[in-house]
Design a protein that fits this description.
Blueprint (H helix, E strand, L loop, with lengths): L1 H21 L2 E7 L2 E7 L3 E7 L5 E7 L11 E6 L3 E7 L8 E4 L2 E3 L26 E3 L7 E6 L3 E6 L2 E6 L11 E4 L2 E5 L6 E9 L5 E11 L2 E7 L2 E6 L4 E6 L5 E5 L5 E5 L2 E5 L2 H4 L12 E5 L3 E5 L2 E9 L4 E6 L2 E6 L2 E6 L2 E8 L10 E5 L1
Parallel strand pairs: 8-25
Antiparallel strand pairs: 1-2, 2-3, 3-4, 5-6, 6-7, 7-8, 9-29, 10-11, 10-30, 11-12, 13-14, 14-15, 15-16, 17-18, 18-19, 19-20, 21-22, 23-24, 24-25, 26-27, 27-28, 28-29
Length: 366
């Protein structure tokens, strides 16, 4: 009887700890003249802060929660006649100024003021010395970037990079390449006009491999996307949709003129017209995001929880390659960068990135 009671009490305590110590939550509280809303869900903290003038700021942080709720403990104000920023302090978390200037929300790195210098990280631009490619050693050990160099890739990781040659002949167009998990899949560029195999490159160990398709595909085809371990390619010339299992390397036709056509939508294959592929060039499983990025004489970002707060994050129209949490990987002109609200880095320079950035860069985070 006593043991049963002890077990019941223990289970009750565990449930209370899970519910109040590690579960998702939404709270609202006041700090001086500020009203704060805080939401924790799935290793992400989202905050909205309203000041005494009803100006609303928002930001988010990706981090596991601790047993106690992670509240803002202090808010400092940084301002002059041209801008106003608030700087929230959260114990154990890196934060950054949230700024409003010239009637718009703006990243603090874009404001030229000595008052903000202590919060900024300087972007070091090393002399390129007439080199075609320069790597600045600013990736972490779990970040991999591959840059197409016409016969293969320059693969960057941590403090080093390697050139990996895959083909005998140069090919400018790299549209028939796709990153699935840690591996790039490419049409065999050494074949002429049509291809019968895919060449693969694993970015973490640089292992190369080959998948014999068992079919002949025209180079006038495109990679539709992926579902789990399956890759999908539509041959535009012959109007055939192929499914390639990247694990067992088996290939099958799942749509053509005889079978009819299907597309993947809302977790299942449904019937569709051929034009969905031939004209619309549909894609499978496009990435969902907690943000929207808008290009309009600069780059702007909104967080889904409040799409009315449009923040300018870059003065230029940038080309975003990948997003991971609130970090983006992008290029502008011939430079490639990473951006997150509290940190910015220059990753590499390539002399013709401006003119050849379509499917030439792939980013994998381990």
């Amino acid at each position: 009887m006593k043991k049963a009671l002890m077990y019941s009490i223990l289970i009750f305590i565990i449930l209370i700890i899970i519910k109040y110590g590690f579960s998702n939550y939404t709270i609202s509280y006041k700090l001086n003249n500020y009203e704060i809303k805080e939401v924790y869900k799935n290793k992400r903290f989202y905050y909205e802060i309203k000041d005494e003038n009803n100006t609303l700021y928002n930001f988010d942080i990706y981090s596991k929660r601790k047993f106690f709720k992670t509240k803002i403990s202090k808010i400092d104000v940084i301002e002059d006649e041209n801008f106003k920023c608030i700087y929230p302090t959260i114990n154990g978390q890196n934060t950054y100024p949230l700024c409003y200037s010239n009637n718009e929300y703006i990243d603090y790195n874009l404001i030229d003021s000595p008052l903000l210098l202590e919060y900024k990280q300087e972007l070091i631009n090393v002399d390129k010395a007439n080199k075609d490619f320069v790597y600045y050693n600013n990736l972490s050990n779990n970040e991999y970037i591959a840059l197409w160099n016409y016969k293969g890739y320059i693969v960057m990781n941590g403090k080093s990079y390697q050139n990996v040659e895959l083909f005998k002949k140069d090919k400018y167009d790299n549209s028939l390449a796709y990153l699935l998990n840690d591996t790039i899949y490419m049409a065999n560029n050494d074949e002429e006009h049509e291809y019968t195999s895919l060449i693969t490159l694993n970015l973490t160990n640089l292992n190369k491999d080959k998948i014999d398709l068992g079919y002949t595909l025209d180079f006038d085809s495109y990679i539709v996307g992926s579902i789990k371990n399956n890759l999908y390619i539509f041959d535009n010339k012959y109007s055939i949709l192929y499914e390639i299992n990247t694990k067992n390397k088996k290939v099958k036709i799942i749509a053509n003129n005889e079978k009819g056509y299907v597309k993947y939508e809302n977790g299942e294959f449904v019937s569709c017209s051929k034009n969905e592929y031939k004209v619309n060039k549909i894609k499978y499983n496009t990435n969902t995001s907690k943000y929207k990025y808008t290009i309009n004489n600069g780059t702007y970002k909104t967080i889904n929880e409040n799409k009315n707060l449009l923040q300018k994050i870059n003065n230029n129209d940038i080309n975003i390659i990948k997003e991971k949490d609130n970090k983006i990987y992008y290029n502008f002109e011939d430079n490639f960068y990473t951006y997150e609200p509290s940190n910015n880095n220059l990753i590499f320079y390539n002399y013709e990135l401006t003119f050849n950035n379509n499917n030439t860069m792939f980013v994998y985070i381990k």
